[in-house]
Amino acid sequence: MEHRALGRSGLEVSRIILGCGNFGGLGSSPAHLGAGETEGEAHAIMDAAWEAGITTFDTADAYGGGRSESFIGNWLRAKSPDVRERIVLTTKTFNPMSDGADHGLSRERILRQVDGSLERLGVEFVPLYLAHDMDSAIPVAETIGAFDALVAEGKIRAYGGSNVDVAWLEAALGVGRPDWAQNSYSLLDREPEHGVLEVCARAGLGFTPFSPLAGGWLTGKYKRGEKPPAGSRMTLRPEPYLHLQEENVFDGLEALEVQARERSTTPATLAFAWLFAHPHVTAIVVGPRRPEQLRPALDALELDLSPPERDQLTALFA
């Protein structure tokens, strides 16, 4: 497994980052607490990731209402010191951990939330910490000041922003030293190309996209004129992807399947390879629901798309 330096942090991450957002829930949604992977299923996924050479695990305090962090912590406690020392953890804060709980990026809340994360994860510090979203009610300087205080205390090593825009990144760079951004990015979500990637490149920040398969759309599971498969994201939490139900999107997906067949691979593997081929993508957050779903991302590491080949895939969804 290849590793890369994450921005200016001095830390390295595996090029595939294990996304643990469905451990004990479905992302940060309080309505789905207790759904997602059981602890046993989560442990099996983490075992498979470790065996594949994946050493970076990504979670958040609100995933599964804290269950994701707890599952990871229990997995780490059962492992050897060598495993515990080599795993690089990322966690985040912003979203409420349950219905009615507080949220946001105030200094007081960040300092409180990180202690809960450390307890659930069973570690003395978290190498990587993220603002999980932007908080319009709190100045960016207050948030960055809290992160800097956590670095000074030794509770985190580096920090950045997830689901952030250019203005947030520029403000953070003006008052502190963020090391990377983590936003949704895929063939079907090109928003980071409208400024965020340019800021990351100019400032020497890392970039670790999540949702590389656009909620499963780039796997080929959603077909023109057919109902979504039972248990798929479009049956559980479809709202973020309803805009994809367009004829031009299905045209692109069908063309992607043709390209995959010509290369004797899968649409998902090509979608991952498209991201790996971007010069400013440090690593990709991959959130498998089963161990075998790591395979397309692992196979993509073996594909070395040239710039013209990458451009050809890009044009399918222009």
Strand content: 5-15%
By CATH reckoning, the class would read: Alpha Beta
How many helices?
12
CA radius of gyration is: 19 Å
- Proportion of residues in helical segments: 25-40%
Largest beta sheet: what is the strand line-up? 9-8-7-6-5-4-3-10
Give the second-level CATH assignment, the architecture. Answer: Alpha-Beta Barrel
Mean pLDDT: 96
In short:
The protein is α/β, with parallel strands linked by helices and 318 residues long. The protein has twelve helices and ten strands. The strands form two sheets. Strands 9-8-7-6-5-4-3-10 form an eight-stranded parallel beta sheet.
Task: Describe it.
By secondary structure, the protein is of the alpha/beta class. The chain has one domain: TIM Barrel, CATH 3.20.20.100. The chain has 12 helices and 10 strands. The longest helix is centred in the C-terminal third of the chain and has 16 residues, at 247-262.
Name its key features.
single chain, 318 residues, alpha/beta, TIM Barrel, eight-stranded parallel β-sheet, 10 strands, globular
Please outline the helices and strands:
Blueprint: E1 3-5, E2 12-14, E3 16-19, H1 39-51, E4 56-58, H2 67-77, H3 81-86, E5 88-93, H4 107-121, E6 126-131, H5 140-153, E7 156-162, H6 166-175, E8 180-182, H7 196-203, E9 206-207, H8 233-236, H9 247-262, H10 267-276, E10 284-286, H11 295-300, H12 307-315
Parallel strand pairs: 3-4, 3-10, 4-5, 5-6, 6-7, 7-8, 8-9
Antiparallel strand pairs: 1-2
